[in-house]
Amino acid sequence: MRQGWGFAALRAMLGAVPLAASLLVGALPAGLLSAAGAAAQTAAAGPTLAAVRARGVLVCGTSTGAPGFSVLDNRGENRGLDADLCKALAAAVLGDPTKIRWVPLTSQARFPALQSNQIDVLIRTATWTQSRDTALGLNFTAVSFYDGQGFLVRRSAGIARAAELQGASICTVSGSTSELNLADWARVNGIRYTPVVFEQNEEAANAYAAGRCDAYSTDASQLAAIGASLPDAANHMVLPDIISKEPHAPVVRHGDDQWFDIVRWMMFALYAAEEQGVTRANVDSMLESPNPEIRRLLGTSGDHGPMMGLDRRWAYAMIKAVGNYGEIFDRNLGEGSIFRLPRGLNALWNRGGLMYPMPIR
Question: Is 65 helix (H, G, I), strand (E, B) or coil?
């Protein structure tokens, strides 16, 4: 503390702090005054959080149909990894995972919908790229799924590697990184092909299934899911060649740092829950855990929710609704699904993957 900066000046500075916070601060050691003053207050709701609460529902932009990520089941409920992340966010900010208005968006419509405030967040197999993260006025938050683009082909075609697709017709989706990656890969490798382009994934998948193209190229996880769901699934295979990096992440608009923080820390909290063994089944008993990391995660100590304008048990509400990240993955894409995808890069950092939760403290 510099010379001349006395208690009177400090009291004057704290004059703007609400009475309850001032009383709490007054009982603490002087060295903790500043930090305690910040933690004792719930952050005011920023524009997006305020709008979501006033509306009473989260408007979540999602896909028009991506098996394993977001697709309507036979009861009309949206299911998949992306759908569960929307539910987790609704639980965190509204306390109810069902308070969602789903907005299905094509690849071409997804970013304009977010830019024009038609949706609060985009959670839709959107690949994080430099141009999207900067030029579009958008922010990618934290990776929800590491993927890469591949090729789905018929076993009867006798194709074992992508280089054998010379002269093939290849289905893909317009306005996506898949369309651009396919063109780059063909140019670099001297592959001649005929693009068969559709506006939606479902249209491209149906065209492939109907034999309108020799191969279908998009994210390998989606190809595996699509291939497994075909009536003659045994006659289809995803080639081993991966031609791109496709890190998916929830997307928000520039200019609302609080909402960016909420969506980003949603992901970190779901990773942390898996890391600490907190599950949908045991989260209630874990409220009694003496582990400081679990206590901060579940809101039994600290003010980590209020720092973002949320309830202290924001992460508890998410985990209670959809489970931790591992449970979400396994249920929709992994061993608990028909797709049985390996975790691979989507495993936790201490299990050979890339999912690394930042510390909640």
Answer: coil
- Classify each residue of 224-241 as buried b or exposed e, where b means 16 or more C-beta atoms within 10 Å of its C-beta: bbbbbbeeeeeebbbbeb
Q: For tokens 């999602």, what's the residue?
A: 62
Handedness of CA 129, 133, 137, 142 (dihedral sign): positive
Parse the chain into domains and list their residue ranges: 7-39, 47-146+248-351, 149-244
Query: Mean of the pLDDT values across residues 234-250?
Result: 96
Beta strands, E only, the chain: 58-63, 71-72, 78-79, 100-105, 121-122, 138-140, 145-147, 149-154, 169-173, 194-198, 215-219, 236-238, 246-248, 251-253
| Tokens at 236, concatenated | 């289809």
Domain 47-146+248-351 has CATH 3.30.70.20: no
Query: In this predicted structure, what is the pLDDT of residue 110?
Result: 95
In the chain, the amino acid numbered 98 is: T
Same fold, 47-146+248-351 and 149-244: yes
pLDDT in tens, 105-147: 998 999 999 999 999 999 999 999 999 999 999 999 999 999 9
pLDDT tens, 290-335?
999 999 999 999 999 999 999 999 999 999 999 999 999 999 999 9
